Amino acid sequence: MTTTSANSGRSTARAGGTGAGRRRTKGSPALASERREHLVRLAAELFAKKGFQATTVRNIAEEAGILSGSLYHHFDSKESIVDEILSGYFDELTASSRAVVERGGEPREVLSALVRICFDALEPHRAAVTVLQNDWNYLRDMPRFGYLGKAENEVEQLWLAEIERGRQAGIFRADINARLTYRMIRDTIGVTVRWFQPGGSFDAGDLADHYLKVLFDGICVH
Question: How far is CA 152 from CA 17, 89, 91, 103, 114, in A?
């Protein structure tokens, strides 16, 4: 697989899409940027709570205390907003994952760090993870979101290389399927967003600690 970063893949996918979806806003550039960021935060909360497909432009505008028409000064659609949310998530995910792999270490150590990256994203990128859990099939067929598959594929390849390295070194079991193992881990962590409550009894670090115990040591007494 040719490794393609989220940024480069997104640039190609957006050539005729998102770029056209960003409207010129009134006021100073700093004020316009602040308004955009505020709208993205509000939309992210709604996407996480109601789901992307169930959230309308009117819902976002009402949450922001503005008319729907005013929202179009900043974004041409809710797809443009979720594009910003998802691209920010994948930019951070791919960069952090690459850095961990490049830093090196024993396969178990590297895999543990990759797991922690995913758990650490549950709070700051809750909306992105929720949208990916609920709306992946809906979004992936849209040309403007073509970068999602490319970014996901890059992250997957990093995981597969570490799992395979661990198998070859005799650290991980030789009879496991690397791709199946990665996807089970990915989906198990991703679905956590449905019940994880920031500020609750367990933070993301606690969840990662417990998950790694079960992943590497199982639940049986040896």
Answer: 20, 11, 11, 21, 14
Rounded Cα distance between 62 and 26, Å, is 20
For residue 138, what are the CA distances in angstroms to 100, 131, 154? 31, 10, 21
Q: Which tokens go with 45?
A: 């909360």
Cα separation, 70 vs 13, in Å, equals 27
57: nearest Cα among 49, 36, 66, 48: 66
Check residue 15 and give its pLDDT. Answer: 39
Q: Could you report the per-residue pLDDT of 174-222, keeping only the tens digit for each?
A: 999 999 999 999 999 999 999 998 888 999 999 999 999 999 999 998 7
If you compute the radius of gyration of the chain from its CA atoms, what whole number of angstroms results?
19
Question: How many CA atoms within 13 Å lie on the side-chain side of 12?
Answer: 11
